[in-house]
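Reminder to self: tokens first, then the designed residues, so the page reads top to bottom the way the pipeline ran.
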């Protein structure tokens, strides 16, 4: 079962990808970079959740 960090991290990653693609389609480099940053943050948070999950096993 996914913990809160894993779920939130995955959601940020997906939302960031959508934001990046929207920025790319609109030619908005700021939105594109913001999406990339959101993806990175989401991946880190998911990694923290994965680590917590392994520690609790």
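Designed residues (57 positions):
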């Amino acid at each position: 079962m996914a913990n809160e960090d894993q779920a939130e991290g995955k959601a940020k990653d997906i939302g960031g990808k959508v934001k990046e693609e929207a920025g790319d389609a609109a030619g908005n480099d700021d939105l594109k970079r913001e999406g990339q940053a959101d993806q990175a943050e989401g991946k880190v948070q998911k990694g923290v959740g994965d680590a917590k999950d392994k520690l609790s096993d």
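The chain has two helices and no strands.
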